């Protein structure tokens, strides 16, 4: 039987989050004409994740099956690749285990693909559901916690004046676009378990899809809620998270350019990034120890400066392993 839509869930030690997420998926509306499934990839969990999923499978509706797979190779990119391999749908909607979709998320995601056949991928609105109080001026770094609220009008990122792309949470990818665009071996593995390794695996995937001629869209009709515990609002965590988000910037930039453009672009980016880091330091150096957001932005500018050298190190290490 042809499957229209696969909900793909990557989880790591998700026993506390999965029940609420699965209940949200059990309560989806306007899905009578959609053939869909749920594919969960357990990315090497050490808790009772597998047991909880088995309990749900025992009385889950057969009309939209709940499937479970174990992926021992840790890293968001490896888990996402496994979900694509196992998913039967022509559209794959990615959710993390701390994402709660609105009751019409599946239908809104499916409908958008029908009206935008050139869309290889698209994301929606992601609202923060905070356990603790965010720091002042949090909106400046909200995107690094996958919080996206870009208005009520759909738009194509290919034509957007800013070089932005949607995050992986709530992202829908057309399986054809993946199979035609994504190389077998991506450079960025993404977060591994709860560790904050260099981020950007989602942008690497989307850059390849965009380079292949597909459109990337923002669909404001798709809403998910990102549950953010209080420890993720702590100063040290935020500085580390935002800082490491910049380490992959060079790789993403170069993917968007032709090979002959890259040497000159590297020098131009290096000069501009140095200027931004210096100006930010001169403006905020007196408050970097007290202003969490200013410190996050300083860490981001410095990590972007380090990015070319970090990526070179990663590529060298990968060659040694191969």
Q: Would you mind describing this structure in some detail?
A:
- By secondary structure, the chain is an alpha/beta fold.
- It folds into two domains: 3-233, Spore Coat Polysaccharide Biosynthesis Protein SpsA, Chain A; 242-321.
- 40% of the residues lie in helices and 20% in strands.
- Strands 1, 2, 3, 4, 5, 6, 7, 8 and 9 form a nine-stranded mixed β-sheet that branches.
- The chain starts with a strand and ends with a helix.
Count of distinct strands: 9
Which fold name fills CATH's third level, the topology of the largest domain? Spore Coat Polysaccharide Biosynthesis Protein SpsA, Chain A
Number of helices: 10
What is the radius of gyration?
Answer: 20 Å
Please name the fourth-level CATH homologous superfamily of the largest domain: Spore Coat Polysaccharide Biosynthesis Protein SpsA, Chain A
As a percent range, the share of strand residues is 15-25%
Q: What is the end-to-end distance?
A: 39 Å
Q: How much helix is in the residues?
A: 40-55%
CATH architectural arrangement of the largest domain: Alpha-Beta Complex
Average pLDDT taken over every residue: 92
Q: What's the SSE pattern?
A: EHEHEHEEHEEEHHEHHHH
**What is the total domain count?**
2
- Indicate the CATH class of the largest domain: Alpha Beta
Model regions low in confidence, pLDDT < 50 over at least 5 residues: none
Shape: globular
